[in-house]
Structures
1.
Amino acid sequence: MSAPVFTGIGVIAPNGLDREAWWQATLDGKSGLDRISRFDPTDYPVRVAGETVGFDPADHAPARLVRETDAMTRYAFAAANEALADAAIDTDAFSDLEMAVITANSSGGVEFGQRELQKLYSEGPQAVGAYMSIAWFYAATTGQLSIRHGMRGPCGVLCSEQAGGLDVLAQARRVLARGTRLVMSGGTDASLSPYGLTCQLSNGRLSTEPLPERAFLPFDRAAGGYVPGEGGAILMMENREEAAARGLDHPYGELAGYAATFDPRPGSGRPPTLRRAVELALADAGVTPEEVDLVLADGHGVPELDRREAEAITAVLGAGRVPVTVPKTMTGRLYAGGAPLDVAAALLALRDGVIPPTVNVRPDPAHGLDLVVGRPRETELRTVLVLARGYGGFNAAAVIRSL
Amino acid sequence: MKRAVITGIGVVAPGQPGREAFWEMIVKGRTATRRITLFDPSRFRSRIGAECDFDPEAAGLSYREIRRTDRAGQFALVAAREAIADSGFDPVTGDPGRVGVSIGNGVGNAISMEQEYRTVSDNGRTWLVDPGYMKPHLYSYVMSSSLATEVAWATGAEGPTTVVSSGCCAGIDAVGYAVDLIREGSAEVMVAGATDAPIYPITVACFDTLRASSTSNDDPEHACRPFDRRRNGLVLGEGSAVFVIEELEHARRRGARVYCEVAGYSARANGYHMTGLRPDGREMGEAITAALDEARINPEEIDYANAHGSGTKQNDRHETAAYKRSLGEHAYRVPVSSIKSMVGHSLGSIGSIEIAASALAIDRGVVPPTANYEEPDPECDLDYVPGTAREAELDVVLSVGSGFGGFQSAVVLTSPRRIA
Amino acid sequence: MSGITFGDFKAIMSRCAGELDGRELTENDLDTAFTDIGYDSLAVLEIASQIQREYGLQIPDEAIEEMTTPGDVIGYVNRHLTAV
């Protein structure tokens, strides 16, 4: 299968509300984790999150669309505008059936949903608004983007928690190989309403540490869970020849390989499958382990899950041989938005020849990883491996390569 | 190119669970629509649903499976196990890494999300909900992806696994996704299908507000009247259909019985409106044409069209126009029927339930009818197979779907007789 | 509650469906179709739902189908509030 290229990036992240602001903050090691401000978290065991403080949806979409959407979709409106402009795409130059939208989603529009559930139970069925039908469900973002930008090709929505953000890139590759010329992909999530946070609390993996700089420490001996965040990235993908034909000579990079696996049921006695996902993705890209220059790790921040990820990385790539980084220490885990943001980091790392740092972490040497901590590392990069795991057993790996 | 065939079918549809109970009901033209029993619907505008007579324990689920899953997950587990048993394929004897899962879904674990919301919010009193009352499986309810997790655990799959969540087209798109993975070689076998269980106050209230559901509350058995002049809206349904879809040579090697080939699939968006459809049938017509092109099949070869036929004024007019646009004169010759008249509209899962009906129609040589069709509508003037099933040798069957978000999908199934 | 004024209606509309892009809704728009003003069918349903909530009315399906302009909505609400 021919490798599609990434031609545009749009970002909404807790530590930056557009692509370059986020990237600069990421290189500077500026974290977006802080005490929750959207509601008073005093009575909740988790008080730190990565919120997109200062985001104003009215800057990115007409009031009508803001009214009928949850925050997750409003982030996508903003990131999609930025990605289209970045790729210098004039949608009028494409036929509508040649363009598609394929996004990942995890929790749906849970804040919007909570408000309408409250109306239902405090006032009755007649109080439920008409937009509930189109704002809460997992397909809301793809539908809205498709309508807004007139993209009528093979659209889609995939949900595999954090892994879904890589699964959609592979789906974009499939439809590009079959004749679609342009895909808007990636994902955004926003699950930080009181009910949304409560849902996440039940997984037992969230950090209860109240100090933002101590709350999310993947691969650290003090790792005690992860911090949830909101936002994500929208990525424009095209076939390389097509991009070149419209005068875009320097795409950010290509999706050279991908694979997904699923972990066996707990207690089955069978081994986890992240390692196989890595091996299959490298094989798909035609890349040897020696050629991998950087790993953007899933970095769960839960000791057992960190250990498993480190084992998979070192088993395939060798212990300490390849730099590994977790920029999501500055954003928290963004669910469906997390892996697209990591892919954005991989692409900008390739562009600038610099590895963004992992912040606040003192690497546990037992993991055998060369974790890039504290400050960015300048180096020649060509091939980056991005890993993502979704709660419930989903694993995905993508190989991103410069051209 | 590799080819993908259906070798196992499991169904939990309104009425009694199980593939054969489903088939018997729809060929007899019986309807499962009734006054809602899953909650007290008296305060709602529409009080009708097509419900599954489903007892998870009697259906063979373990105590733990029942405790941790929503009704939607329970349907999927039962349907997946029936499909696996039907196919005779045992995922754990081969390489489980070559077996994947794709489950279509529209509204996730909606019943559990709503029930648990009531608990933590003290029945809607507090915005700052109390996590002290949360259930340990709540995180699995907020994400639809847990539905794929359950099916993968139940079947032993370790290959590519996901939930496809394109609203009411998800039941078709999950099958399309599975076929793509098989054709490209990412998996040899996919356990694919869809599930949804939306009959609960919030979803019923949504369709009330949109005025999209039928208000024939005095006559629930005849409430859903696709293509009929007096149609007044859809009836919500629930349920699941899951398939074992295999690479053709893999199925041949193990001597599997083949129901049909999934020969063509397409998804298109209307780029127009989140809930509206153009009256001219453009977008669905495009989806049908694209699926036929992929299958390399001419419109004239279609022997039966399994309709979306939701029973809303808007859809049935759009869909009729779409058949005329995409099939030309053949639209007037091909039988078109909507099983939603009997099993309602189960949102994200109905596409798979309709694929099950289509695959069984090929297998058994019977076109299921449209129930409750009595008065023709001048805007809907095709052969809708009113009331009574018809025997016919079916080589090519088209099934279509349409949903919120502006999605339209179509799939073409072909008889094993056509596999050279 | 005695009735709904144009001002009340305008406030509900902007709460439900957002301000108009680049212009104010005026009484000259009373007989302009919602679609021409820039509000789609969903926006009309949302407005209807909000009016039901705030005025304690139940608006039947047939009445909604006939609400194609702001004037239709205001007229309907006032006829039915006085009837109560």
Note: The longest strand of chain A covers residues 253-262.
2.
Amino acid sequence: MSERLGLTPAQTVGPYLHIGLRWPDGPYVVPQGTPGAFWIRGRIVDGAGQPVVDALVESWQADPDGRFDHPDDPRGARPASVPGFRGFGRSETDAAGEYALLTVKPGPLPTPDGGTEAPHLTLSVFARGLLHRLVTRIYFPDEPAANAADTVLAGVDADRRDTLLATPAPDGLRFDIRLQGDHETVFFAV
Amino acid sequence: MTQETAHPTGSRLVLPRYRRDDVDAHPPLLSPGYGSTVLRAPRQPLTYLPQRLTEVTGPLLGEGRLGEFDHDLTRQHGGEPQGQRIIVHGRVLDGDGRPVPHTLVEIWQANAAGRYRHATDTWPAPLDPYFEGVGRVLTDDRGHYRFVTIQPGAYPWRNHDNAWRPAHIHFSLFGRAFTQRLVTQMYFPGDPLFFQDPIFNSVRDPEARERMIARYDHATTVPEWALAYEFDIVLRGRESTPFEDGDDDE
């Protein structure tokens, strides 16, 4: 069934996105000093391999117990078990095309068909030159069994699945985003 | 705990379902007339993502994010900015016309001369010490928002020969769920620059393009003070489910 009212079309954030979308506390999904917190860092590159210096990444995730403080979670909204947990992160890219988010690992989630989703973050990517956001997911490298059973990952071409897997880094994880070309990141229609 | 026993292990998890994004309403990611898309639009087709718990929930960001004058871009910096004062207001709705209450609306824009307060905007138009160009509000119970700002100017860019962006205000919307997140631009009626703007025209359906243009709203003007524009924003709606409203005729 289609929308009864026509949707407002998407448009690019443009090169001056920082004026409207920069939040000083944006990168902090959890407050600094949160036990177990780690950084997810990555670089966004274009089809020529050049860093995308005018992009913005937003993340959304469950808390470590796999819960959301949101009324549409049919298990009930529940405040996070981690003090100050926002679930949402926002980071612009810097002059090297790098973003950074401080977070904690989300728990696994139940699915409507009785299965389990592997721990993940869902991302929106905005940039000059992107007329609509791109959606992707970050999965965790220390969850091989859960990742192997995850039906979203199973729906991704096997030879591209690794573009959704973060890799270990000195202060957390690394998740690079390749907008186009070799090893192009898998982006989703949601 | 009651919230656990309400959905005991093994019971079916029923999630809201949002309509799939309307690809005809949105611009194609690769729109070569807008040069920056050429190296940034993915070349692989998008992969279908079922809407799961992470997608049907989303950040519900509240009052704590708002400063006293975040709704009034003419009162943020100790003096009146240059330009035509305008009220920009409207409703945030879903595709069924239902208001989206208490949702964060963020805007940013150029000043009256068409200059952004940004390090990389260097064209020779004046900055205004009294204008930063950023606003934030929450919609009310009925999904209504209202800003006071100044009419932004058009500005040149280097996309093609003698390229000018039509005047616009950038809008960022969260809605209620990750699925509803939207960033768009609001344009002004009758702008003579539309014909040559590849960003506006990247939306291929003329009716969809019209939905990015605000309506001049004389009834909301304030005599001897401000003109007014109305701009409603429509986010994705939900599929009805068999469990909702007994509405089983579709």
Note: Confidence is low (pLDDT under 50) at residues 1-9, 244-250 of chain B.
